[in-house]
Amino acid sequence: MNRRALDIARRELGSTESPAGSNRTKYGKWLGLDGQPWCMSFVQWCFNQAGAPLPCRTGSCSALLRWYRANQPERVVPDPMPGDIVIYRFGHTGIVESASGSDVTAIEGNTSPGQGGSQDNGGGVFRRTRKRSLAEAYIRPMEEERMTGKEIYDALCQYLSSQPVPAWARAELEEAAAMGITDGENPMQLIPRYQAAIMAKRAASN
Fold it and tell me: Fewer CB atoms inside 10 A, N or C side of the chain?
């Protein structure tokens, strides 16, 4: 996920137009669309501030979605993750913070703090929870962050743990466990060289 863009969006919570009702913000000014509806300007600004500018520079929700569908369709995903861009069916957007069940929570620009005001021209940056049925699509921009060594290791372990032991290896794995070479637990887990050396030593002793 793009944590930097999401963190930046969180820091903007409570920001409002000046003067009220003018659609004038630093986000629109940065994109060259000051005085225009600015929910997409806010999203674009956050990703740019995070060092991951979006490949389609636009203030239009539908234009951004069309670009990704035409050029990077693999980035248009069915299920949201933190840092994704949500495109709503009512011409609005935000940066996904979390998703649970039938709801998605996003940090959105140019919306209202509650249901009482305009949802797509409300004048401020607020955290909003909406039904996922209101979302037309989620966009997962190219990740610009480098993973740490631990993150790479954890991702590999998570992937491998979801994979089955190859059929050809199962009998010998059971035999190795019976001989005490391995305990047979977590058979797809990565092991460091010292563990491999100890297993080899046990095998040589039997």
Answer: C
